[in-house]
Amino acid sequence: xxxxxxxxxxxxxxxxxxxxxxxxxxxxxxxxxxxxxxxxxxxxxxxxxxxxxxxxxxxxxxxxxxxxxxxxxxxxxxxxxxxxxxxxxxxxxxxxxxxxxxxxxxxxxxxxxxxxxxxxxxxxxxxxxxxxxxxxxxxxxxxxxxxxxxxxxxxxxxxxxxxxxxxxxxxxxxxxxxxxxxxxxxxxxxxxxxxxxxxxxxxxxxxxxxxxxxxxxxxxxxxxxxxxxxxxxxxxxxxxxxxxxxxxxxxxxxxxxxxxxxxxxxxxxxxxxxxxxxxxxxxxxxxxxxxxxxxxxxxxxxxxxxxxxxxxxxxxxxxxxxxxxxxxxxxxxxxxxxxxxxxxx
Amino acid sequence: xxxxxxxxxxxxxxxxxxxxxxxxxxxxxxxxxxxxxxxxxxxxxxxxxxxxxxxxxxxxxxxxxxxxxxxxxxxxxxxxxxxxxxxxxxxxxxxxxxxxxxxxxxxxxxxxxxxxxxxxxxxxxxxxxxxxxxxxxxxxxxxxxxxxxxxxxxxxxxxxxxxxxxxxxxxxxxxxxxxxxxxxxxxxxxxxxxxxxxxxxxxxxxxxxxxxxxxxxxxxxxxxxxxxxxxxxxxxxxxxxxxxxxxxxxxxxxxxxxxxxxxxxxxxxxxxxxxxxxxxxxxxxxxxxxxxxxxxxxxxxxxxxxxxxxxxxxxxxxxxxxxxxxxxxxxxxxxxxxxxxxxxx
Amino acid sequence: xxxxxxxxxxxxxxxxxxxxxxxxxxxxxxxxxxxxxxxxxxxxxxxxxxxxxxxxxxxxxxxxxxxxxxxxxxxxxxxxxxxxxxxxxxxxxxxxxxxxxxxxxxxxxxxxxxxxxxxxxxxxxxxxxxxxxxxxxxxxxxxxxxxxxxxxxxxxxxxxxxxxxxxxxxxxxxxxxxxxxxxxxxxxxxxxxxxxxxxxxxxxxxxxxxxxxxxxxxxxxxxxxxxxxxxxxxxxxxxxxxxxxxxxxxxxxxxxxxxxxxxxxxxxxxxxxxxxxxxxxxxxxxxxxxxxxxxxxxxxxxxxxxxxxxxxxxxxxxxxxxxxxxxxxxxxxxxxxxxxxxxxx
Lengths: 345, 345, 345
Description:
Rossmann fold; about 15% strand; homotrimer; 12 helices; 9 strands; four-stranded parallel β-sheet; 2 domains; alpha/beta
């Protein structure tokens, strides 16, 4: 019987195990994730050149299809694509396309007919990118830029790249994720990435009201009290308080939250002295994190941003290359089948 | 006495009969329209390459000047221009420029002074593109992307390209245009294109309330009943129900309209068995067309979209080339005149 | 004691006196301004080619960071950057970024971490570009595209280029600035530029209510009556009536303003017969200027627009080159320091 992980792997990988879509980390293995990190590493250097461009995706068309507005994430994908020499079309669907009564499926079919090569998709509904990947024209790659509460895999991979840069490897690492885990697609993808890459322990540090249901099934340990959870941590990942996603009164107040789960210098002292501090941004200073910690020597928050461009370049170029390989293989298979028919004839 | 067609031809063509603006099809001849289709055909192949780029308009600046918002049409012009290697500037005038009290004419003069090479113009007023073309700086090409109820010539030409691909030629073809003809600039341009290219018969299938005044003068036959109009048709062009353009209660209801003029499998069976089904998009499923027909084997709706990029590439590169030729000729003429003066001196 | 001019010079120039930011003209000298004009002159020719592109900034990333919307100014910077082959990211901050509670400083740090090379900044607060330049990552250039009532230096420099083109030099020139000087960042920068470049006389022609406080300290002569102020002028610079910036009832009515300070053919006749007429645009016809004058033979308003692209290309390429030189020098200095340490060791 095919599990979720199996079907997710099949959807994202070619027969040879190469990436062709990038939707979520479920079912992907350590070798592939490591290949993404290695590829991203090689692109870090491109961002440091004065000519920040490689011709890998020249003449390819990337469509940024954002059903939820996000200037920041859209910009990183746009910059990553331009550094790969791709042409970029930004469509803010929340304000435009479906307004004329067209279905989502028809909008997509139209964009595919315009010979687009890749869609970067952000959508408020969990599973939107998977849904689209299942039906998309062969040869077109889908990259998930965040779907509902489900997954945000490029964010998780840029976090992994940042951890590897600072810690060398994942072996023996203790990583804590702090805050509103329940509403966070970032946290879901981070937990999967850390488990696949072999971190020793993943901790969720959050009150009951902000935990996912059955957290233990995710391969994590839960710490309702931050002071206990921080002990010996090598990596502290603060989550953004998703004020816009919180339904109802799950927390007494921001001030109360900060007192219990905000990362202050005092609390940071409880972790390993060489612990690094991460945050996906944008940060709410004084709500999740004290300014002195965000700007302090243990913070790697801006490295995360820089790595975001490199990881997106890696994922886009790998998916395009996987799509190309698959098409060539199919063409070869067809040719062989025809030769066989002719041989028999 | 110069007719409308004469003046339209003069405005759009160089002295040698080459395209220099593309405003409407009125007054253009079969040879020119065929040249547009042939050029577009040669660009179809570019969209199928992995590097979808030709350097024809490298270093040229295209300005998308949309006084009516239209993400879809703007995107096709933007992609077409980028595949020709042009630089693209998108200006959504409905939200910005004239807000500071500047006249349309001043906005245009300013953009021309920025060394723009081409304007793609969409405007709610019929004749806007003509008006602009009459006054524009020599060397700058104007492309009409839809003006009021008047014309949408690139849409009509992509439809012609789609018909020619599927039917080989226009000789002997019976083509029906179904729906809200009165409010449709697309229909006006299609009728002209079909007559110029030599279709045998063009039919309008619509109730009296959605017909233009004096349709017979347009070289068409009118069929108020769809069942009769569809008989023997080779090409069925469904129009979008322009709900946003309809003034007052010209129709009892969408349900009633669908019953009378919606294209269902049953009605489609009345046409020629090899008839193709077209729609300019975005489609209203269940209002103008049954989903099974839109997605069925006779539908070429997505081919139209693909052809839209190729036709726009053709028209843009031809108009730029016409402008260049005209400038060179004028420079030569000036030189000759000067030599004559010097010879006489 | 360091003056404002000193600190402004230090912030904008490298140790070798090359431009590395472009924030305001205060403290800059005639040689540098002349170098900007000469560089811009060399780019004028690029705009006249059919391939309007030079590879100077290929692979560089320019971010247009507009906290005040301005389609026109943003477009000229975007076109200028594309003609230098840079990649452009447009961020309309007024509608997006800080909406999620992020501080301006964090937004900028994030953009810098994405390996941006240059920010073009427009902001409603005077001093915003200086503030940002003071803290920006080394290597990143800041260009001021208008801050509050303070400065708009690229506008002033395109005006200077236009004057030099038509008058040859600034020696002996009498220049009048007419209208709402008090609210105009353009006027402030023009006055500085004209004084640095050695114009003989700069006049402000405005009612008391629209004059800055202590105009005499700016090196200008004040003329409340236009008829007197226009006498013998070589250059007449009309300002836009900043209706959106005017607080309270400083003027009886637009009609009254036009009667007193609008430039009509009658009034123009009072200036030098070869006087040129300038306006930063967008113009309010019949409010600041009579249509016949705006379109007349003495108007150079559209030349200003064309020059705007060239001046922005000049400033961007010079600032990038200054940043590069500074980084190379710092690297060399570091190397020398290390060699010295090793030599001593």
